[in-house]
TrEMBL record:
GO terms for molecular function: ATP binding; ATP hydrolysis activity; branched-chain amino acid transmembrane transporter activity. It holds the Pfam family ABC_tran. It comes from the Bacteria. Residues 7-239 form the ABC transporter domain. PANTHER family: HIGH-AFFINITY BRANCHED-CHAIN AMINO ACID TRANSPORT ATP-BINDING PROTEIN LIVF (PTHR43820:SF4). This is ABC transporter ATP-binding protein. Keywords: Amino-acid transport, ATP-binding, Nucleotide-binding, Transport.
Length: 239
């Protein structure tokens, strides 16, 4: 059984060096649920995950994990609390093997037995990685690299897994495989915050959905309710 936690954002304003990108974001990710943030590109979805991870500064509001604020913490301390961020794209160590990349996900774990157990779990969930464990990361296919990125995140043993557009740039068949993996994580009771551009892709998978536009959450609710709102889909997502 994996240690799970709740994540809460309250009136969060954040950005980079210029104006705020996130403008008063409030949402909750309850234990054991998959929450998806959808919206057009360039409107703050990746920035949201970076704010939670401490990679950009939150100027107003609060972010809590199981009731405790993470804002005073540095990014590596936030990761140590169990917030695991699998960023957009591959971002693997290209000259290292699959096995070595996976071990990098467990760099903060001091218990060798725990690391070995997590590795077994990752290989069971993603058997392709077991087959490719000696292969150099730069030689993997796009789908294999994405699976290796997810596997590396799982090696951290986090309480909340944040996935930034895991389907980006992949062929339809590979996208199905990636979301099949996320479905298995759901069955394990994992808590997941997922960023995705296409709501139809995750409507049957997630519990709650938020539509983000220009740094604001403009709609929240059950995913199938959004899929029935043609005017919202057309206005914010082009159809």
């Amino acid at each position: 059984m994996h240690d799970i936690a709740s994540l809460s954002l309250s009136d969060v304003w954040a950005g980079y060096d210029g104006p705020d990108i996130l403008k008063g974001i409030s949402l909750e990710v309850q234990p054991g649920r998959i929450v998806t943030v959808v919206g057009p590109n360039g409107h703050g979805k990746s920035t949201l995950l970076k704010a939670i991870s401490g990679l950009i500064r939150v100027r107003r509001g609060d972010i809590t994990l199981s009731g405790r604020s993470v804002l005073p913490l540095s990014p590596h301390r936030i990761a140590a609390t169990g917030v695991v961020h699998v960023p957009q794209g591959d971002l693997l160590f290209p000259n290292m093997s699959v096995y070595e990349n996976l071990l990098m996900g467990a760099y903060g774990e001091r218990d060798a037995k725990q690391t070995a157990q997590r590795l077994d779990e990752v290989y069971a969930l993603l058997p392709r990685l077991a087959e490719r464990h000696r292969q150099i990361a730069s030689s993997l296919s796009g789908g294999e690299r994405r699976m290796a990125g997810i596997g590396r995140g799982l090696m951290a043993g986090g309480r909340i897994l944040m996935l930034d557009e895991p389907s980006l740039g992949l062929a339809p068949l590979v996208i199905e495989q990636i979301y099949d993996v996320i479905g298995k994580l759901r069955a394990q009771g994992r808590t997941i915050l997922l960023v995705e551009e296409n709501p139809a892709r995750v409507a049957d998978l997630c519990d709650d959905m938020h539509l983000l536009d220009d740094g604001h959450i403009v709609w929240s609710g059950p995913p199938h309710e959004l899929m029935g709102r043609d005017e919202l889909l057309a206005a914010y997502l082009g159809g």
